[in-house]
Amino acid sequence: MPHLLSRFRFCPACGAADFQPHDARSKRCTNCGFTFYLNASASTVAVIRDAEGRLLVVRRAKEPARGTLDLPGGFVDPGETLTEGCLREVREELGIEGHIGPLLFSLPNEYVFSGFTVPTIDAFFEVTTDTPELAAPGDDADEVLWLYQQEICPEDFGLNSIRKGISALLIDYLR
Fold it and tell me: How is domain 41-173 classified at the architecture level of CATH?
């Protein structure tokens, strides 16, 4: 298996071509000593249920996994907290304001973008909204769906951590 940073051949600090694997998640420049670590990026997932117990899901508008089901969420921007990032994603993808609830769980994931695998840690938050009926697709979402528990199939979700999260949520539904 290639090194996580195999596509990075030149040192980003000095430009030297001697940018070598240092350990499983880093490379070091033998010319200037700069070491770059590829750490997990923070990502959030909004778990939104309505008064009938239906789960809000979206259909992905973009790759990866375009056309598959997903939960609203995405990468946390620099300078944001996890909760701020989660609520921003709800606004961008659904056009509604949310209220952050408890952290339900987190899962590691790999997100492939532009041929590069980004390790992520996905934080699943319970989110409520005063206006669930106004949720409409925006940004990365093509469609908004409200699904009852019996309509949810983890295999319909295109991203690995979301499939695992949906499975965990289904177990929670049955409690």
Answer: Alpha-Beta Complex (3.90)
